[in-house]
Amino acid sequence: MAGKRLSKDPYNLIITGVGGQGNVMASRVLANMLVNKGFYVTIGETFGASQRGGSVMSHLRISSKTSWSPQIPAGSADVVVALEPIESIRVLKDYGNPGIKILSNTRPIQPVGVIAGDLEYPGLDEIKGIAREMASDAWFVDATDKAMELGNPILGNVIMLGALAGIGVLPLDKQGFKKVISSTVAKDRLDINLKAYDIGVGMV
Amino acid sequence: MSNLMDNRKGRQHLLMGNEAIARGALEAGVKVAAGYPGTPSSEIVESLSRVAKEANMYVEWSANEKVAMEVAAAASFAGLRSMCTMKQNGVNVASDFLLHLAGSGTRAGMVIVPCDDPGALSSINEGESRYFARLVEIPLIEPGDFQEAKDMTKWAYELSEEIRNVVMLRSVTRMSHASGNVRFDTLPRDNVKAMFKFDGFILDQMEGLVISAPVDYKHAQQQEKIKKAREIFEECPFNTYTGPDRPELLVITSSACNLYAKEAIEILGLEDRVGLLKLGTTWPLPPNLMKKYLSMTDRVMVIEEVLPFLEENVKVIAAEMASDIGIKRFYGKNDATLPMVGELNPDIVVSGMSRVMGIDYKPVPDDYAQKAQLYATTKSPNRELTFCPGCPHRASFWSIHNAIELDGRKGFVCGDIGCYTMALLPCGFSTLKTVHAMGSGTGLASGFGKLGQFGFDQPVLAVSGDSTFFHTTIPALINAIHNRSNLTLVVLDNSGTAMTGFQPHPGLEKNAMGEEVPAIDIAGVCRAMGARVEVRDPFDLEETRNTLNELMEDEKGVKVLVLRQMCALSPEKKAKKRYEMSIDEEICIGENCGCDRVCTRVFRCPGLVWDKERKVTRIDEVICTGCGVCADICPAGAIKRKEV
Ligand code: SF4
Ligand code: SF4
Q1: Which of the listed residues B564, B587, B609 is the one where a domain comes to its end?
Q2: What is the pLDDT of residue A2?
Q3: Whole-model pTM above 0.80?
Q4: Position B6 in a domain
Q5: Terminus of chain B with fewer CB atoms < 10 Å: N or C?
Q6: Computed from CA positions of residues B4, B5, B9, B13, in that sequence, does the dihedral angle turn out positive or negative?
Q7: Other CB atoms within 10 Å distance of the CB of residue A91
């Protein structure tokens, strides 16, 4: 595994979002990109009841040495990829630390309690403020909006993966993405996925 | 993305624990796999069903776990390696057969895989399957990482054939549903012919009868098998030790807890002071191996989920050897070093281990932790569990709830297992009053419905999903009809095992391998058994409620109402909207309506949004599935539907 180094071993990444956002798919693609580079990757996921409108989180442990626990220890996440903005704030309680980095989508998905008028959803500026206060770095990208321009909101995940590659915390590249995504999506969807990835890289 | 049939030796793939178990079965040349869907076990049979043709296998979703185990055992008796999977409580269902199977023994290798759910992440219990292995005296093995999930599954077949008995390989949610690197071996190319031999010597398990009697003979034989397993376990490569020769503390662990323990030792920097004995074979424990490691130190910590099963077994061995190895001090569940309820994680293990070792550990500065806590509670509004937009259950429970209110005799509903268990919560108008095992709703209702002679006069209802109906509701229903119990069973038929991801069941025309099969008609079955049966569309709220009230008033025995409407997540359903919905803002009276915003506050379909500024309800076009139901709940008639 010559030449491939992690800034920390294991490197701990959380992908968080809401059931139905394609969280599981995003974590699988990312993990496969890293496995292909020779790393050990452990993914921990929550399935089942939590998929019915609940928060969904994937933990990725990336290591050049061994498989780690599927749950990241308290206060030890290195980067959070939030497919939904308030989910990044929720994650900080258990996994945040002053050195954490946050990469967040800007498009909210309102909880039923908010929709029904019982709870408040904070404004985007407030969320950004909290992220900048609590993290060493924070990036906000309009991934869903861009994905809708491309014709499908689910491509927001791929844009987020591109943005993750763009912030340069992990050894990710387009070749690696292409290899994994070609075996995941139908042939005629390949180009649009590659385009979404590039857009993501360019957004940070 | 099925890599499961990749036949290149040494290739690495990222596999979910359940896929790794499936791959292990394939590498062992398994021919028959059966199970009943249940989180976290379902992906094993699911992955195998996908490659069934290619691997020349027979894979089925059975009606329940007991039948699944019988189907898998038949294959073993006929000389084919087989597997049977289930979630933890499924072992209870299968246990009657399992007891007898353990007594009769097996022929070709047979492995049962229960997947436990510590912390009940997707269950309403955190039952233990490990105790069953000890109870029915069969070997228990537990993989400690993803590679082992594959390798130990494969090995389990050799073990099963070595001792000619069934082997239990136990997984847990964090193993089954986590993913990691797995290095492949090759797949066998064999062509076995199935044949059930029975005319050998009567006591010859391989060619005579397969039976657990004569009990004294067979039970003694079974215990010989367990002794043999224990000997094999002494040399088993899946029991490993890492750490110093004379550790201050010996940690004994298995399964996902191995990963937590490893992590805790690293976090606390205890590599030179703590030894880690990871056991792959957890029952029966191999005494010589245990003696070797227990002799290293006087302090022992056992890390496991959920109950102190391993801890108890280690203590028995340590007591037996006390004169040789000395008295030990134990840390674990019994002395509350670790909690006896819920799942563990690296942090709980860190906190237990740091106390035992007298180390202070704080992952983040206090002020940061306090701020993070504050923001999480005030700025990330909770996401409550709810039925999907357009879910037929929301409509069904709306009608059931209203029918009971209208009836006014304090009627109640005995609940059952499935997505609709959520009707305990406000999303189902808190309609369910009891929930236990699969099929228990109807069994309880059968009992309640016989209490009339003691002055009991409340209407009794039960609900059952379609898959649950076939699983264990049928015997309870037979009981109720035969004993003239007075109850109304509502079958919530949404055409699939929705909760666990649409596995087929006996009511559908396709099986696990996608073949055409005869569907069993629920209404027809109930009618044939002698119940009064009605079938309705739950999206027709008025019809449904009227029918329910009529059935509740009919006090002559068992009434069944089948509410048939496809799950909102089913692929066919997702493809098309039935109605285009809109709100007439002139008519919407918002906070003044009914009991204040009935639609968003009480009915609460996520497709309906309360517009705070304008004080009217809005439809979210993206989320609304166009089921049209909300048009009927608005007392003012503000919600409009237009056929598309
Ligand atoms: S849409 Fe109907 S039920 Fe909802 S707030 Fe308006 S008047 Fe009330
Ligand atoms: S039509 Fe009404 S009840 Fe049905 S999904 Fe849309 S908003 Fe929800």
Answers
A1: B564
A2: 36
A3: yes
A4: no
A5: C
A6: negative
A7: 24
Average pLDDT, chain B: 94
Q: Do A117 and B600 touch (CB under 8 A)?
A: yes
Q: Are residues B408 and B279 in the same domain?
A: no
Pocket of ligand 2 (CB under 6 A): B 389-390, 581, 605, 607-608, 619, 624-630
pLDDT of residue B597: 85
Runs of H (alpha helix) within B420-518: 440-448, 466-468, 474-482
Which residue type sits at B321? M
Q: In this structure, are B174 and B259 located in the same domain?
A: no
| Residue A45 to residue B612, Cβ atoms within 8 A | no
SS (H, E, C) B281-327: EEECCCHHHHHHHHCCCCEEEEECCCCCHHHHHHHHHHHHCHHHHCC
Residues of chain A contacting B601 with CB distance shorter than 8 Å: 116-118
Residue nearest to atom 7 of ligand 1 (CA): B588
Contact between chains at B263 and A93 (C-beta distance less than 8 A): no
Instruction: For residues B426 and B538, state if they share a domain.
Output: yes
Contact A68, A10 (CB under 8 A): yes
Q: Which domain holds residue B612?
A: 579-643
Share of chain B above pLDDT 90, in %: 85
Domain boundary among B357, B381, B402: B357
For residue B395, the ligand closest to its alpha carbon is 2
Q: How far apart are CA A18 and CA B169, in angstroms?
A: 33
Among B33-37, B168-172, B548-552, B635-639, the range scoring the smallest mean pLDDT is B635-639
Placement of tokens 């290619």 in the chain = B54
Establish if B373 belongs to a structural domain.
no
- In the predicted structure, residue B97 carries a pLDDT above the cut 70: yes
- How confident is residue B385, by pLDDT bands cut at 50, 70 and 90? confident
Q: How far is the CA of B566 from the centre of ligand 2 (A)?
A: 15
- Residue B370, in any domain of the structure: no
Q: Which two tokens stand for residue B86?
A: 């289930």
Decide if B419 is inside a domain. yes
Contacts of A123 in chain B (CB under 8 A): none
Measured CA distances, B51 to B54, B505, B515 (Å): 5, 19, 14
In this predicted structure, what is the pLDDT of residue B615?
87
Same domain, B153 and B285: no
Average pLDDT over residues B272-298: 98
Report which listed range, B152-156, B382-386, B516-520, is most confident: B152-156
Output DSSP code: residue B42. T
Residues B444 and B312 in one domain: no
